[in-house]
Amino acid sequence: MGDYINVVEMFGCDVFSDSVMMERLPKKVYKELKKTIEEGKELTMEIADVVAHEMKEWAIEKGATHYSHWFQPLTGVTAEKHDAFITAPMDDGRVLMSFSGKELIKGEPDASSFPSGGLRATFEARGYTTWDCTSPAFVRHDAAGGTLCIPTAFCSYTGEALDQKTPLLRSMQAVNTQALRLIRLFGNTTSKKVTPSVGAEQEYFLIDKEKWLQRKDLIYTGRTLFGAMPPKGQEMDDHYLGTIRQRVSAYMKEVNEECWKLGVSAKTQHNEVAPAQHELAPIYAPVNIAADHNQIMMRILKKVASRHGMRCLLHEKPFAGLNGSGKHNNWSLTTDDGINLLEPGQTPHENIQFLLVLTCILKAVDEHADLLRESAADVGNDHRLGGNEAPPAVISVFLGEQLEDVLEQLISTGMATHSKKEVVLETGVKTLPDFMKDATDRNRTSPFAFTGNKFEFRMVGSRDSISSCNVTLNTIAAEVFKEACDRLEAAPDFDLAVHDLIKEYATEHQRIVFNGNGYDPEWEKEAKRRGLPILPSMVDAIPALTTDKAVKLFETFGVFTKAELESRAEIQYEIYAKAINIEAKTMIDMATKQIIPAVIRYTTVLADSINAVKAVGPMDVSVQTDLLSKASELLKAANSAMSSLKELVKQIPGFPEGRERAVFCREEIVPAMEALRRPVDELEMIVDKEMWPMPSYGDMIFEV
Length: 704
Ligand code: ADP
Ligand code: MG
What we know:
Bound molecules: adenosine-5'-diphosphate, magnesium ion
Oligomer: single chain
Shape: globular
Low-confidence stretches: 417-431, 435-439
Distance between the termini: 30 Å
Mean pLDDT: 89
């Protein structure tokens, strides 16, 4: 058989999936559980006990010895606490393997050191995890053996969300309720549920592990804090979609297999724009599952890299001057019977519904652009957003020329009568032609692009959870749908009211539509004229979480309370300040212990050479002298920049104001770090490569 792999058999083999449940659970129990999953009903302890028992038996067959409530605290990564299945030894010294319904549905991790932004201090110290039975359990195999992982939400005793999943599930409910109302208005009586579907494309870098080990900045911060550009960067664009190197191919093969075993539908892989940069995309899934799968995928990317003597870098900007990494969050709304609300329709009726949904989303994005920007805010993403590659830090919507034209006609005449492709188009009379897909301009510079039957939000950072942006997307969509439904349900003439509403939304929120080049500096000026929020850094974006507008939005739909929002803002500030603090200290450490000593050695070699050459006779030592004086000058500059940085780090304000600390880091520490980097990077260009204490950019990105 050789290397033959049976993907169909492999797929989901380590997942306690629907088919496994159907096979193993008593019919009645299976039905009850399905009902719980589909209708969001409460699970009884009786049912939970049976499910837990079968789950345990299945997991043990798969080699599991432990179970773990697997959750996503606000640190951006996943957390878990492992418990063995064993019971206390019996009199004869033997143990049994047990797992109860209670253990399945509720856990109490000793998780008091996860960030809670003061929530737990105000309420109650304990945090609880509860099973999200809509995301299947799975057995993960690694050095620790087999672990049954149970996807869970993490809340405080009084129900405040301490994680990413809880608000995501709440927001799914919110958008479900309002979207159902909307489709009912258009005569849909059969769909039972509307679910946000998400496919998250994941970008990452791969570098050699030996080189990684020689870079303290990569080890401690995930990105290079120093590093001069190699003679060749990405300017040739010869990496993008290029042939995948063998070592990387072997890696990708294993990543795919590990993903498939856990039911993650890894589908598309290719090289990205920067050398050593790659991408992996799964097939879209309900958003809570997509979020879990993205976490699983990130973990697999890292784990498999280590097996292949490489490191997977998920940081948003591992290398200055090269493209950063993001996560493209493809979002749509799908009914349980397979209708995509963002798909242009087959009938005039459906087309009107499509245009209403589309203009609702324009309105939602325009009114909450600040929140959407915040939802993608991450320390590393500050280097990416607004850099000359990733989406800019200003939110706008790309619709494509033709769809924008349809809207413009609606605005000016209230009626779209033709499309740019000269296909007859009269909403209400004929159907929207299937032009959107063909015409989808690949505008890679737009942060929020309509791509035929979904929106692609491109701002999310590569390392970040996709939960936050989807909580925002779901909730802002729910808000506008609610408003639209309130008005339409009360309207005496529905058809007229819909037309008016589409026209009104398109007119009032046209400013958010931008089809041009998002990297053009002119765009920022234009955005300013249009009054769109420009929030260049994470620290600028965080306040969006706690505006009256945001509190009203999230409280209306029970997604976040004001206290939860305030705690999240506080956590964000803390995360920012901590990360910058670590970066600054790492720079100081590297400069003090590695770079400055290396430069001193180099200048000594130069000085010795000058003396030695002169001793032979009256010879020209101008090259050595020039180099020596240049190196000495830069050394002095580096040393003084380092002293300033050290001084500033000491001044970082202490407790209690998170915001104050974050602002100080952003305004004082970050520029001081840049000031230290400049002379060091110049030194790297002149110092003998043999003497430079760490691998260069060229070494890392071209030699994987
Ligand atoms: P791209 O050209 O951006 O790579 P793809 O069609 O390959 O576009 O899609 C990228 C991602 O979008 C994949 O994860 C895919 O599963 C997902 N996707 C496709 N259709 C939808 C949809 N209707 N809703 C949400 N995600 C979708
Ligand atoms: Mg894409």
